[in-house]
Amino acid sequence: MSAGNIVILTGAGISAESGLGTFRDKGGLWENVALEEVATPEAFARDPARVHGFYNSRRKGAARAAPNAAHDALARLERGWAGEVLVVTQNVDNLHSRAGTTNLLHMHGALHRARCAGCDHKWDAPAVMAPEDPCPSCAAPSTRPDIVWFGEMPHHMHEIFTALAAAELFVAIGTSGAVYPAAGFAAEARRLGARTLELNLAPSDVICDFDDARHGPATRVVPDWVAEMLG
Length: 231
Ligand code: BV8
What we know:
The chain is α/β, with parallel strands linked by helices. The chain has helices at about 30, 35-40, 40-45, 50-65, 70-80, 95-100, 155-165, 185-190, 220-230, and strands at about 5-10, 85-90, 105, 110-115, 120-125, 145, 165-175, 195-200, 210-215.
């Protein structure tokens, strides 16, 4: 394959070697706090200060982290590949954009963005958010992290399915395949005619949807794969 469109789905595993925790590995985020307490609209309605505290802490951690060799390799692939390379990330950190990836969709939102639950205005999030923060546009105290919580529709779904339909290759990197609709992208891409490749530390929950797989740490497996793709 020397051209053709590539869609790459990334998850928390690509940022693990940058020091950011994953969700479902041993010691993962959801082992320490129940997602129902901090990552649903109901949790935010019940205790907005606690939810803001959870994301303020993750925003601080993400700001301290740096892109790793896997993020850098994907940015190289975008620059050097003859076809289109689209990165769809489930991650809410900004390590892909800091590594230089530009064709990028944050389907689960982003820690560095804020949103008004009242007027839907979006802006760059401050380091620390609180329930009483007024919206810069409508002044209502209805600001929230621009994060897609469980039970909410992920962002950019139309663009993602359009890209899957035009893809020759779908690659999933650092994701457990536990969360939908992202976990269904490989099966959808395959149904639409794409080849599918998993690059992950261990087989994911949806390994059966992949034609090929390479298992190992992202900072080794992803640069090796990109080097092969760029010849
Ligand atoms: C939706 C933002 C419908 C938050 C996230 C009941 C009620 C409501 C919904 C549902 C329900 N039952 C099922 C659902 C659907 C639900 C879902 O799938 N739930 C799961 C738990 C069963 N999905 C949703 O709710 C989605 N919305 O369905 O909307 C709808 C329809 C119409 C109209 C309105 C609504 C929304 C899902 C988005 C939730 N938000 N993130 C935040 O980040 O705080 S999802 C959450 O899981 C994470 O954020 C992450 O993005 C995502 C996936 O996790 P992974 O990235 O894969 O991370 P994980 O730890 O799981 O795995 C890491 C992997 O990396 C492992 O495989 C590991 O081996 C590997 N790894 C580790 N180290 C390395 C490595 N690989 C390489 N190198 C390494 N070094």
